[in-house]
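Quick one: structure tokens for this chain, please?
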Amino acid sequence: MQHPDNVIQGSESAFAADEYAQRIHRTRERLSQAGIDVMIVTGPENIFWLTGQQTPGYYTFQALLLPVEGEPVFIIRQLEYFNFIANTYISDAAIYQDGDNPVDFLVGKLQQRDWLKKRIGIDKRGWFLPIAVYETLQDKLGTVADAAGVIEPLRAVKSAAELEKISMAARYVDAGMTAGIAAIRAGADENALVSAMMGSAIAAGSEYVGMEPLVSSGPRTGIPHGTWRRRVLQSGEPVFLEMAAAHDRYHAALMRSAWLGKPPAIAQEMEKVCQEALQAALDAIRPGATCEAPHLACQQVIDRAGFTDNFKKRTGYSVGVSFAPDWGEGAILSLYSGVTTELQPGMTFHIPPALRIYGEFTVGVSETVVVTDTGYRQLGTLARPLTLL
């Protein structure tokens, strides 16, 4: 399809063409090792990582057909075509109309390329592969290999260019969290805090994020993943703030806690333990250590303090490329018991130890960090201790 002269190939791409070429080459090597001839890539994160294509319109069907040999084919809705040209260095795409059945369209492209006789794989565990689509593909193609885990290990270790984008996102988070803390006062509502946080992060440079901020006050902080609901802050109450920001779809996140007045002794003790647990986890990060090592170090601090029942979660998770509904890459790597994948320089994690008494309060603190050759590098700059107002 012809496109206007002012829609320039790759003009809005997050990276240079060489970066994508290297990623596709490495992915093809892993596909070959897995015995897969053609991979159907449907997840927006993997699609973005391989091609640069990004759109909030991923709620409609899109797929990259990536062969071990030959040129890839991108299946895309007509409305997204010019977006695709601007974001990628792929010169053409297979475009379907809104009246078409996109799965039938995809199968037709496989047939045109004589790929139906090849071993075809797809990520069966992807969030964005509806059961109906998979069952239709299975019906039309027969056996479809599971290509889950082919691309994700490559995404786990970030390039220098990727790390720069995550570092920029961390600067946006710093701006947002600073503004959110400054907006805390008795009589303000939770919406005012979120408005300050997101407004400042966006003004600093952030794009839309993979998940909304987690902001709550008073007893509502004692419920995990609470979001703002217009509640008015009162003196003597806790405030919980967690947010992410994004640069070219690469995310960084941050958690902080505050208290309007003097916290009860148990909250002060829990907050101190969170600080110690976070530092213990950070100190356990080094190349060659397993992903469970930071978690075990964190858990040991919490257990020693007697708060085992208040901490029933992983210590951290990979961050990088994200689309809604998450700002993390937790499906790629978690810092948790039994995860024996070795840490490598370039891996990036959000580490958010939090302790709570359910229905009363939560305190917590976090950092986004990069694994380095000797340990870790913290990306955020904000003070960690509980903010008292």
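The chain has ten helices and 17 strands.
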